Structures are given as structure tokens and as C-alpha cells.
Amino acid sequence: MIKKITGNRDFAEYLRGKSASFVLSVSTTKTCNIPNLTQAGIPGLIHLTPTLDAEFLCSGEVRSLKDIAKTPKGVPTPALISRAVHLLKPFKDVEIFDLGVDTKIKVDYFKMRDFALEPSESIDKGADIEAKKLYELGKEFAKDYNPEGDYVILAESVPSGTTTALATALALDYDCVGKFSSSFKNAPTNIKQETIKKALGNIKAGEKVFDKLSKVSDNMLIFNAGFVAGIAKRDLPLVLAGGTQMACVYMIANRMEEELDSKNLGLFTTKWVAEDENSDIEALLNMLGFKVNAFYADFDFSLSSHPALKLYDQGEAKEGVGAGGALVYGLLNGLSKEDITKKVEGFLG
Amino acid sequence: MIKKITGNRDFAEYLRGKSASFVLSVSTTKTCNIPNLTQAGIPGLIHLTPTLDAEFLCSGEVRSLKDIAKTPKGVPTPALISRAVHLLKPFKDVEIFDLGVDTKIKVDYFKMRDFALEPSESIDKGADIEAKKLYELGKEFAKDYNPEGDYVILAESVPSGTTTALATALALDYDCVGKFSSSFKNAPTNIKQETIKKALGNIKAGEKVFDKLSKVSDNMLIFNAGFVAGIAKRDLPLVLAGGTQMACVYMIANRMEEELDSKNLGLFTTKWVAEDENSDIEALLNMLGFKVNAFYADFDFSLSSHPALKLYDQGEAKEGVGAGGALVYGLLNGLSKEDITKKVEGFLG
Fold it and tell me: Is the terminal CB of chain A with fewer CB neighbours within 10 Å at N or C?
């Protein structure tokens, strides 16, 4: 079952049966090196997360992890969910947008779009991103972008990405405190708040929007906002697969574009985000000057007794690597909760 | 399991695994306002049936029904079957051919082909259809018609459509009394016979075929006959999804065209039609000058104990909204009788 958050129900119904290109956009912000800020990865190796997620999504293997034994028994990456759906009801294509990662992704054959970007700096030191250039790059790239699927599911893997997203939305003057989610059940509010406070402190009064973004945002957010603006001019349905970070992508595009035709723009996320009591994605989407067709998958791990998966239902992890988008796609194409649960459990042994 | 009625078994085998555009052609004939002639809908609101079927097929909701509480607990629309298959093994695309309905269909995003037609008059008063123009419209439209699927499943929703179909076949001098089915188990023979008698009474001796059609037929039958004739010239498999009404579509095309290459022409229907003792679709198809590749789905509700669904197995409803075509498509693509039964039951609560 699929549930509507905002927009037009028929957007999702129309995509039923259509083939999808699943695009994982990855970038690293050095913000993720701040201790205990995120749990999206292996402590000490958090910067590897986007690379490992991309490798696992495409191949079922994590290839850039030298010592796999070090993987802690924590919350498993939501990449497991996206991969499970891909095994059960494969996407027409899986592509990677490499928007600046620490370690090269070791995958062959798959379309790997290399935009020659470096990881951005930590936002407490000013992210040092060429924001205007990056936004225009996304917009320009969207013009001729030619996916194999009937529509595009655009996912992300950016550790500490909810921190940079919240900082970004605040810098753009959205009234959004308490509305962004976290990969933690009990978010490390102090570290996060302090980081964001430092980041916003680098902004000078009267600075232009792009200059603000250069200091507090991340590559994924800015490039994808440009990509959204470019795709909106075309007749190609685009679904951002993610939670409040993807809402932030729309919030950037909303500030940059005077008008944006959102008929073909969507957002698919998880139940853990949509029903999260500590964030409010619906409120974020309602701040936009256009209507996003937003839905979530009515999927949880209530059919599983695996302790690692139970953590999702308790509010850990919630979303990432397009898990929500993969789930909605799976449910739209006839997969059942049982099918998906079993396949994810299979990865954990 | 799929069973052959007429034609070449490999036609269906070849379509296994292919993607399908499911097209619902809808029209209203005011014939349906004759009391007790049809049970295809809500008494007093029968004219709404094509609109509601289209809405439900696309979106899972009936949007043009103001007071849903009025729905009687009768035979549920076969749209439930088509929708169930679409949820389990989605069609590549769902399209609507609007051939003149009473109430506008409230669905966005889906391809809605508007041919600017009005509902036709009741056949007992002369249907008042511009038959030649409508047939040519269907034929012309078929030339450039470009579906998303590898083949086309063309369904219909026309309440009282078996009455107009029988009147049409009789007017075209087919020896078909007793061979057309009804949505009733015990068809209201008197009302139906009287209506058809009146309709045929409007035809003058020596009238041309198109002039006869103008008086006794319906928009769906005539347009689709033209569409069939147009598609037959192309390399695109077309399956008419329905029972004796769809046989009648072929019977019209058979009268109009001197030659018709039927290699790519099929018909998929239900077991309830194919094994109906009160009609004979095989005999109708054998009256044609060409061979239609006709099959039925060996599906019934023997696995269900739901009283509303049991009515199908007792001979009520039988077919409509492409139920037979959806079932054959589902069975060709790996769905089981259990899968489909459960999904249909899910709609009824």
C-alpha cells in the first residue's frame, strides 16, 4: 500500500507498471567526520558509506571495505532494502551520479556519471562549494539526460546529510526547526545544533543565496536542486527518493527558480520518515511554492523478528539509498511486504 | 491456464512476457436507461458505469459517485478483476478511449483520448450515430496510434452493450439468435427482445450497412470495428478483451472490409463467457471471414467463499472492463488463481 503525503494521487498510479531508472547520487561532506554526528556507516569509516552503498546496490558486494569483519552489529544500511527490491523486481537501470566521494566506487558496466567533484568541506568550517556552478551543472545536465527507464527514481547517500540539509534550509530562511529527521532515533541534538550554529555563523549579513549554499550545504543537495529545475522543463517524471534531505533539494530549487512546473515531480519515502514524530516532511513540502507529488510506502519490519531490522521500526536509520523510493516502486509493481521482508532478511543471515 | 476458442495457439504463447497497453474504451448508449435491461451498474445510475469503471481501473477509486453508500450489494463490477491483475502484474500503461460518456472521467496523468463524442440515443428510438464517420475515425486513429506496450489489450465498458451488440449483429444479417450473452444469469429476455425488435423495426428495407448501424448500434462497437480494421494493416498485436460484444466488433469489421489480415488479431475472454450455456462466442467467431486468435482464462472463483464473487460462478456478470483480457494477461505472466482471487477479495473486505 502506498499513502499520499502531498500532491496528486494519480501521479503514483500512473507510474504503476512503468520501468524506472534508479539513480544513486553520492557525495561526501567532511561534516560526517565530526564524531557521533551520524550513524550512517562504520565509525571511523563513515566517509566510505556512499562508496559502499553504491557498490552494494549495484553488485551485492561492498568492495572498498578492506576488513569486512570490522562492520559493527548496528543498524544495517537502508541499501539492503533498495537492493532487495532490485533483486525481486529489478529496475530497468541503476546509475550512479558521482558528486564527490572519498573513495572511488569499484563497479564496472553500470553508468557512472563522473562530475569531477571533490568531497565538500565540513560545514562548521565553511563547506567551500562552488554552489552556483554546481547548481548550473545539474540544470544543464538535466537538459540532455536520457534515462533508460520510463521515469527516474533519484536516491542519495550522503552521511551527515540531514545535518547539512537542515543547515541549508535554515540558511535559506525556511522556518524548519524540528522538521528535519535524523538517522538516529534519539538524535544527538547538541552536536548537531552546535555544528549547524557554527555553519550559520560563517554566513555574513546580506549574503546572496548561492554564497550561503557554498558555506553550509553539500554537493548532492545543490546539484540535485539544479537537476530538478532542469528536469521540470521536460516531459520526464522524476521522483526524489528520500526523506527530509530530498525535501531540502526541492527547497533549494524553490528559492532559485521563479516558477517550477511540478506536474512531473515526485517524492517517495519510507513510513519511518513519514510517520516520524520528531520531524515533519509534510510541513517542509508545504513550504514550497509548488506542489510535489509525495508518497510513502506503508512498509515496516513488523513481519520480521530480526533484531537489526526491528531497529528500523524503533526509529533508527529511517531512510537513505532511496529505500523509500525502492519500496514504493516495489509495491507499485506487485511486490508484497512478505516478499521484501524475506529478501532483506536473507542478506543478514 | 489458458484455453483456445479459435485461431492459433501460438498467438497467445508469443505474447507471454510481452508488455501490454490496457485500453478501456467507454461509451454510454441511452439504451441502458430502459428499466431492468441490464444489471451492469447501480440502478438509476447505470449511465455512470463506464465513468466509474475507468476511474476505478486507473486509480482504485470511484470518484464520480456522490453517494457511495447507495451502491447495492449486488454483483461487483468486473473492473475489480482487471484492477487486481493491474496491481499484481501492472500493465505498462492504462489508457482510456472516451467514446461518449455521460459524466467526465476524473483521472489525471493517464492518457485520455477524447474523440468529442456524445452518448448515443437508445436503440428503440434509433441510436442516431454518424456510423460511417465514426468507423472511419477509428480506422484513421489506428494508423498513427502508438501504444507504450508491446501489444494492445482493448477492453470496453458499455452498459446494455450486449443488447446493442445483438441488435447490431442481427441488423447485419448474422444468424446469431441465442448466441449473445447477457450480464444476467437469467437474462430479461422479454425486455431485451422487445427493445431489439423496436430497434430493428426502425430499419427500412434495402438500407445500407452504415445506415443500419446508425440506428441500432453503439459508439464503442463502431469505433472499435474501425480501429480493428486500421490496426490489421499494421504489425501490432491487438487483443479485444471481452465476450460477445467484442465478437460483434469483429463482425462489423468483417462486413466492412473485403479482406482483413487477422494474424495479429485476438480476443481474450472469461471462462464465464466461453463456457456459458446460453450463448456461443465460438459460433459467432466462426461466422467471420477471417480467423480470430481467441482464448479464455481458465479462472473462476472456486477458491473463494465470498458470496458476491460466487455470483460470477453462478453466471452473473460474466465479463466486462476487459476482465477476461486481464486474466489471460495475468496467467500469461505468472500469476496464479490464488494470487488473483486474494487480491479481488481484498477489494470487498
Answer: C
Contact between B108 and A11 using a beta-carbon 8 Å cutoff:
yes
Burial class (CB within 10 angstroms; exposed 0-12, middle 13-18, buried 19+) of B73: exposed
Distance of CA B184 to the CA centre of its chain: 15
A8–B110 C-beta distance less than 8 A: no
Q: Are A281 and A243 in contact (CB under 8 A)?
A: yes
Reported as a pLDDT band with limits 50, 70 and 90, residue A189 is confident
Q: What Cα–Cα distance (Å) separates residue A242 from each residue in A12, A247, A265, A324, B240?
A: 16, 8, 13, 6, 41
The ipTM is 0.91
Chain B contact for A17, CB < 8 A?
yes
Asked if B109 lies within 8 A of A10 by C-beta distance, the reply is yes
* CA–CA gap between residue A101 and residue A96 (Å, rounded): 12
SS3 of B24, please?
Answer: strand
Q: Which helix (H) or strand (E) holds B111?
A: strand B111-114
**A298 at the B interface (CB within 8 A)?**
no
- Other C-beta atoms closer than 10 Å to the C-beta of A347 total 17
Q: Is B85 on the interface with A (CB under 8 A)?
A: no
Q: What is the distance between the alpha carbons of residues B270 and B276, in angstroms, rounded to a whole number?
A: 10
Instruction: Judge whether A39 and A75 are in contact, CB under 8 Å.
Output: yes
What grid cell was written down for B197? 425488435
Nearest to A291, CA basis, from A259, A322, A256, A327: A259
Closest-CA residue of B relative to A334 is B88
